Amino acid sequence: MQVNITTTGEEKKTEVSNIQSTLGANFEIVKVLYDQPNRKYHNFGHILYMFDIAKQQGFKLNELQRLAILYHDSIYVTSRKTDISNEIMSIKLAHSHLIKIIPKPALKLVCRMILDTKDHVPGIELSKEIIDLDLWILSEPEIIYEAYRKNIREEYSHLNDEEWKIARKDWLKKMLHRRTLYYTKNIEAVQALAERNLAKELSGYS
Q1: pTM, whole model, 2 decimals?
Q2: How far is it, in rounded angstroms, from Cα 203 to Cα 105?
Q3: 147 SS3 class
Q4: What is the rounded distance in angstroms from the CA atom of residue 19 to the CA atom of residue 206?
Q5: Burial class (CB in 10 A: 0-12, 13-18, 19+), 142
Q6: Per-residue model confidence as pLDDT tens digits over 74-120
Q7: Residues 6 or more apart from 170 whose CB is under 8 A from it?
Q8: Torsion angle of the four alpha carbons 179, 119, 64, 189, in this order, in degrees rounded to the nearest 10
């Protein structure tokens, strides 16, 4: 199974326009965060990619899921030395932007979906598609996966090679030891591709 990540500009425009109309000026605040030059992978392209894959795989995202996708990496600091995760900081931003826009029960769901992207384990049903989309890059053909890996390495350029090797190996092992990486239906082939990419990268750090 090969994943085609090409979609039309019109499709992307529709998804972004829908969110932009909901958020108004706050949309530009979020986009500026994603467009920071140090964000080589976790940038706005990552958000567009998730929407692309959702369309290609027939995921029928609702408004709350689209908002969760937009905000889930809105704060992304690789050198953070506190116990407050990027996801918690992203939740705080989402809450401040959405508290007067959507009902509190809906906001609670958005925040939960964002939180579930921290460990990529769904705490609610709505998170399953979000997690799958967030990790879909792991199942891409080798050339795309390698570009992803290089971009992640650049985001952690503050680590020397040995520090990076130790941290990355730990993460790869953690992902490979999971019972499953994906939670939606018919993802066996995607799971196999992701495991192949992860195992190959891990073997390169031996």
Answers
A1: 0.91
A2: 45
A3: helix
A4: 44
A5: exposed
A6: 999 998 666 789 999 999 999 999 999 999 999 999 999 999 999 99
A7: none
A8: -30
